[in-house]
Amino acid sequence: MTDDQPAPRAEARITLRLNGEPTRVTFAAYKTLLEVLREDLGLPGTKHGCELGECGACAVLIDGQPVLSCLVLGVECDGRAVTTVEGLTRDGRLDALQEAFADLGGAQCGYCTPGILLTARALLDRVGTPTREQIREALSGNLCRCTGYQQIFEAVEAAIQGAPESGNVVNRRIRIVSDGKRGGDRLRADGASASAAEARRDPDRAEARAPGALKNVEARHE
Amino acid sequence: MSADVKAGHAIGVAMKRKEDPRFVQGKGHYVDDFSFPGMLFMALVRSPYPHATIKSIDISAAMKVPGVKAVITGKDLEAAGLGWLPTFHGLDKQMVLAIGKVLFQYQEVAAVFAESREAAADGAEQVQVDYDPLPVVADPFASKTDTVLLRPDREQKTNHIYHWEVGDRDRTDQTLAKSAKRVKQRIWFQRCHPAPLEPCGCVAFFDTMGRLQFYVTSQAPHVYRTALSLVTGIPEDRIHVISPDIGGGFGNKVPVYPGYVCAVVGALKLGHPVKWIETRTENLTSTGFARDYHMDVELGATADGKLTAVKVATTADHGAFDCAADPTKYPAGMFGICTGSYDVPVAHAEVDAYFTNKAPGGIAYRCSFRVTEASYAIERTMDVLADELGIDAVELRRKNFVKKEQFPYASALGFTYDSGDYEKTLQKALDTIGYQALLKEQQEKRARGELMGIGFSTFTEVVGAGPSKHFDILGIKMFDSAEIRIHPTGAGIVRAGTKSQGQGHETTWAQIVAEELGLDPQQIMVEEGDTDTAPYGLGTYASRSTPVAGAAIAMAARRIREKARKIAAHLLEVGEADVEWVDYRFQVKGVPAKTVTMKEVAFAAYTNMAQNEPGLEATFYYDPPNMTFPNGTYVAVVDVDRETGEVKVRRFLAVDDCGTIINPMIVEGQVHGGLTEGFAIAFMQEIQYDADGNNLNTNFTDYLVPTAQEAPHWETAQTVTPSPHHPIGAKGVGESPNVGSPAAFVNAVVDALSPLGVRHLEMPVTREKVWRAIREAEAGKGKAART
Q: Pseudo-torsion of CA B697, B701, B703, B709, nearest 10°?
C-alpha cells in the first residue's frame, strides 16, 4: 500500500436492533455510528456538531446507555440495541420528554435537541425522579448554545411527572412552581389562576402581555 | 381551529412554538440533511502557517486519490475572475483561495472535490503546498508600526484599515481637562467566536434549467443571492438560495465564506451537486470571530459624580481581511452607543482598525454591530469611576440616567433614544434582588475577610437597523419586508426575508398576523429562507427581525385589514366609513350586534367580493424611522474563593425592557440563552493566538462553551416601555442579555476583590486571573496596580 494506491475499502455488515426493529446494514468499515446512521440508514435526526466527542449533538442510546455516536464505530454495534431520536416516538405518540420540551421552550434551534432528549430519556429510565443536580450532571456532555439549559431542566422535570394529556394541546404552559427542590415540586398548568398569580407577583410581566391582550390570556388556557 | 383558541388575542401569549413538533422529533431539516443524486463532497486544504509565501502547489498526488474529481486553487479562481470576494461593508475584499501568500493559519488554500467525504479529505491531505514563512504580525499594536506590510494587494501601503470617529473631540478633551474627577481605563474586549452548534456549510448544484440551487447556513439569504451574483456573474434570477433550518447562528452565519464560493465553482465545473460542511475546527479557526477591541475609556465627572464627558479610543484587530459585517457607512457599527444609559453632555469615540495575521471577521456575536463592546466599555468604566469617587455604583448610575421625561433623547454621539424608563427598571431590579440585604451580607462577609461581589449593568443597546438613509450592506438599504396571503378559509401564509436560527419566528410572526387580523395563529404558516418565495429582506442578525421584519408583518397585515374593510362593508351592507375594527372583528359603528369576522371576510374575498378586487394579500417593505433601544438592569452576585480564585455566580437577575412582548416563553428563552453566552464570554471564552500566530483554541476542549453544570440559574423580570415608532411597540430582545451581562459579571468579581485594591480585570475572568489578582494584592502590589 502506498500513497498512490490506497487499500480498497472494506465493507462491514452488521445486524442491530434499531429503534426496536431488527435491522441489517452494510457500510464502509471505517465509518462511525454517526455516519452509518445518517448516511447508510437514512436517519438524519442524529446531528454532527464537532466530530470530536465534545458537543453531544450526536448522542444516541446503545443498550439504553447514552453514547456519542461520533466516537463509536459502526462495527461495534453488531447485536446491540440502538435508539435514536426517531425511535422516541412510539405508535405515533410523543415521548413525555418531547411533549415537555415543546411545552416549556426546551428547544430553540433544535440542533442539540435530539441528543439531549435521548440523554435525558436514559436518565429518567435509570433514576426515575432525578434532582436538578442529577439532571445537570447527566446533561453536562450535551452542549446547547441557545437555551442556557434552564428551560431544558424544567422540561425534564416536567417529564418526570409524565406528559401532559397528549394530543394537540395548544398554548398549555407548565411551570415548576417551587424551584429547585424535588419532592416539593408541584406542576401546574399555567391556566387562569397561574396567570393571575404571575400577574400579582410581577405586574410588569403581566403588562408585557400587551394592552388588550392580557385580559384574553386566561381564556386561552384551558 | 383548535377548540381552545379564540381568534385574535395572540400577542403576549406564551403560545407553543410551531417549529417544535419537528424539532423534538429530530425532523428539522438542516443543510447537512440534504443530499442529491451524484452529489460530490468538498474538502478544503488550509494553511498551517499564519503568514507565508506560497511557492508552489502540487495537486498531482491528490488527483490520484481514488474518487477525487478535481482540485482548484487560488490561481484557478483568479483566472476565472473569482479570486476575491467583496466584504459586506465594502471596505475590503477577501481571498477566496490563497493567491500568492497566506495571511492566517487555517486560511483556505485549495478545494478538493471527490465522490465521498473520505476521498475529499484524503485528497486534501495529498495536496502538496510549498510555503516560505514570512514574519508574523499577531498583535494590532505591532501592526500599527507597519514594519511588516501584510496586504500589498491594497492601494494603501499600510496595515491601517480605517479611522472612524464620532462626536466632538476638542470639546470632549477640554471638558475632561476641566473635570473635577477623571478616570481612564484600558479595556480589552477579547476575541470570541459565536460557535453555533451546527457548523457552516452548503450544498450547491445547477438544476436542469441551469439555475443554481444553493442550500446554505445563512442568516441573510437574499443578501447571499445578490452577493453570489455580483461575485460570480450569474444573473440573480438564476440563483435560488435556500436557508433551511439553521442550528444556531449568533452572527457567525452572516458573512459569505470562501467555502461557499468554492462549492458553487465546483458544482459549475463538475456538473454535480457539491456538499461542503465545516468541521468544528474549521468553524472556530476560519469563520467570523467577534470583538477584539482594545478600548481606552475615559470618563470625566463633577466631584459629586455627575458625568461631564465620555471619550473612547479603540484599536481594533480585524485579522487578515476586514470581513466585519457592519453597515457600509459604519465600519465600527453602532459603537457610538458607548455613552450608554447616561445623560452625557459631550463625548467622542474613535476606532482605528488594523490587519493582523489572524482569521478575518469582526462579526457581531449575538449583538447589534459593536454594541456589546460599547456597552461593556461604559458599564465597566462606570464602576471604575464609582470607585474613584468613593460612591455606590448604583447611585452613580441613577444620578446620571437619561430621565424618563427626556425621551426622545438625543445622545452626544448622534442617536435618538426612542423610549425607556431606566429608573423604574433599576428600582425593580433592586427590589427583586433585595439589594439592601445583599449589601448588609457583603459588609458582614468583608468583616470576616470573605470575598463577595455585587455587580450591576444598566445598559442601553441600539438595534433594528435601520433607517435606510443611514444603513446599508453592499449598498442594499437595511429595510425588511413581509408578504401575507390569506386563503379563503381564513388560514394564511406569511413570508419574510428574515431567517430564524432558533428565535421562533414561525411562532411569533404568526402571532403578529393573528393579532392584527383576528385570525388563528395555528393556521398562519410562516415561511422564511427561500429567496424564490420571500420578498427581499436583509436577514436576521443585530436583533433586527422583530424591530424591522416584525413591523413589516404588522404593516402588511394592516394593509390587508384595509382591503378587508371594503369587503366587510359589502357584507354588512353599509358604507365603508360605517365599518370599524373592534375586538378583532368588523362591526357596524355603534351596532355591536352587526359584525363580521375576518374569516368570513376572507371567504368573501374569493366568493362574494362585489366590486372589490378579488383575493386577500399584501406586501409591505418597512423602512424603520429610527432604531429601537432595548435596555435593562442586570445584577450579578458572586462569591470568590480567596484560596483558589474560583468565582461562583450565586444569583443573576436580568430585568429587561424590550418593549411589547409577543411571546413570553420565547423571550424568556432568548434571555436565558444570551445570558449564558454572556457568562461564557465573561468567564471562559477567548480565541487566543500565540506570538507566532498559532490559533490555540481549535475545538471545544480549548474554546469553552458552558455546559449544564456551569450555567448559572437565571432570574428574569421585565419592564415595558413600548417603542413609540414601532407598529406594535416591540424593540427586540435576542441580544440584550449578551450585550448587558458581561459587565455585570466582571463588575461583580471586581467588586468582590475591591477590598484588596483591585479595580479592573480583563475577560475572560478565569480562575487563574482571579487567583493571581488576589495573590498580587496580598503581596502589596494591589495599590500600584490601581493606576
A: -170
Same fold, B20-28+480-622 and B371-461+628-779: yes
Residues of A in contact with B277 (CB under 8 A): 48
Question: CATH assignment of B34-134+199-246+253-286, given 3.30.420.130, 3.90.1170.50, 3.30.70.20, 3.40.30.10?
Answer: 3.90.1170.50
Task: Provide the b/e sequence for B65-79 (b: ≥16 CB within 10 Å).
Answer: bebbbbbbbbbbbbe
Question: Which DSSP string do the residues of A26-40 spell out, in sequence order?
Answer: EEETT-BHHHIIIII
Closest residue in B to A149 (Cα) is: B708
Beta strands across the sheet bearing B715-718: B451-460, B631-640, B647-657, B715-718
Residue B718 catalytic? no
CATH code for the part of the protein at B371-461+628-779? 3.30.365.10
Beta-ladder partners of B310: B299, B347
* CATH architecture type of domain B20-28+480-622: 2-Layer Sandwich (3.30)
Mean pLDDT of B357-379: 94
Count of CB pairs separated by less than 8 Å, A with B: 252
Q: Cβ-count burial of B115 within 10 angstroms (0-12 exposed, 13-18 middle, 19+ buried)? A: middle
For chain B, which residues make up each domain, given as ranges? Answer: 20-28+480-622, 34-134+199-246+253-286, 371-461+628-779
Catalytic site residue from B126, B219, B670, B685: B219
For residue range B106-133, what is the model confidence (pLDDT) as tens digits?
999 999 999 999 999 999 999 999 999 9
DSSP annotation of B30: B
Alpha-carbon distances, residue B229 vs B86, B212, B217, B224, B749 (angstroms): 12, 10, 18, 8, 50
Closest B-chain CA to A108 = B502
CB–CB contact B665 A105 (8 Å): yes
Cell numbers found for residue B686: 477567548
Rounded Cα gap, residues A21 and A171, in angstroms: 35
Exposed, middle or buried by CB within 10 Å (0-12, 13-18, 19+), for B39? middle
- pLDDT tens per residue, range B248-304: 999 999 999 999 999 999 999 999 999 999 999 999 999 999 999 999 999 999 999
Element of type H or E holding B669: helix B664-683
C-alpha dist (Å) from residue B463 to B146, B252, B289, B540, B740: 36, 18, 20, 12, 13
The verdict on a CB contact (< 8 Å) between B664 and A47 is no
Q: What is the pLDDT of residues A54-108, one digit of tens each?
A: 999 999 999 999 999 999 999 999 999 999 999 999 888 999 999 999 999 999 9
> Shortest CB distance from B12 goes to which of A136, A152, A209?
A209
Please work out, in degrees rounded to the nearest 5, the angle formed at the alpha carbon of residue B112 by the alpha carbons of B109 and B118.
Answer: 125
The residue assigned the cell 405586574 is: A203
Annotated active-site residue B366? The verdict is yes
The CA distance from B243 to B253, in Å, is 11
DSSP classification of residue A8: P
A213/B9 touch (CB, cutoff 8 Å), yes or no: yes
**What is the C-alpha separation between A130 and A145, in angstroms, rounded?**
23
Instruction: State residue A176's pLDDT score.
Output: 30
C-alpha cell at B305: 459624580
Domains of chain A, each with CATH number or no CATH: 11-87 (3.10.20.30), 96-160 (1.10.150.120), 174-222 (no CATH)
Whether the complex's predicted ipTM surpasses the cut of 0.90: yes
Write down the pTM of the prediction. Answer: 0.92
Give the one of A85, A102, A142 whose C-beta lies nearest to B21's C-beta. Answer: A102
Whether B686 is catalytic is: no
B chain contacts of residue A7, beta-carbon cutoff 8 Å:
none
pLDDT at B9 over 90: no
